[in-house]
Amino acid sequence: MISEKLEKELNEQINAELFSSYLYLSMAAYSGSINMDGAAKWFQKQAQEELEHAMKFYHYLEERGGRVLLTAIKEPKKEWKTLEEAFKEAYEHEKYITGRINKLMDLAVAEKDYAAQSFLNWFVDEQVEEEASTLAIYEKLKMVRDYKGGLFMVDRELSQRG
Ligand SMILES: [Fe+2]
Ligand SMILES: [Fe+2]
Question: Which string of DSSP letters, residue by residue, matches 92-116?
């Protein structure tokens, strides 16, 4: 059985992952609105992945005898100045999520909940990837900046995400 405190924090993490999904879906819609279809596809995939993260927490909480309690999801931002700005914020958001995962891990360690630590390890590794991928795209967009040909190439590359 999971502690009440960890149960509460895991429920909040479900909300955070659902918000991540909502934010990336909003970034996908923005990307589509400026004809960056590759980026739109990339963000849609990212939104889907975040839903899967939420479900991992959902199932884990149930498995440990906890109760899933869903709460309101905050409205995401809808407009960005450039695709570069959107990816910069995606990177910032991933760093924020990493901080949350680290806090969950701190709690699992403090409570000597080894099962939760093992479960959270997957997310620790996942966040390394999430930060790296969003940062790499942001850096590329920063490099090409206003050069339309470069922007077109980055967008095509983003469309390749499997
Ligand atoms: Fe996530
Ligand atoms: Fe993420």
Answer: HHHHHHHHHHHHHHHHHHHTT-HHH
- Overall average pLDDT of the 119-141 stretch: 98
Q: Which CATH superfamily is domain 4-158 in?
A: Ferritin, core subunit, four-helix bundle (1.20.1260.10)
Query: Domain extents for the chain?
Result: 4-158
Give ion ligand 1 contacts, CB < 5 A: 17, 50, 53
Ligand nearest to the CA of 24: 2
Please return the burial class of 157, using the count of CB atoms within 10 Å of its CB with bins 0-12, 13-18 and 19+: middle
pLDDT in tens, 27-65: 999 999 999 999 999 999 999 999 999 999 999 999 999
| Ligand located closest to 18 CA | 1
0.90 cut: is pTM over it? yes
Spatial separation of the C-alpha atoms in residues 144 and 150, rounded to whole Å: 5
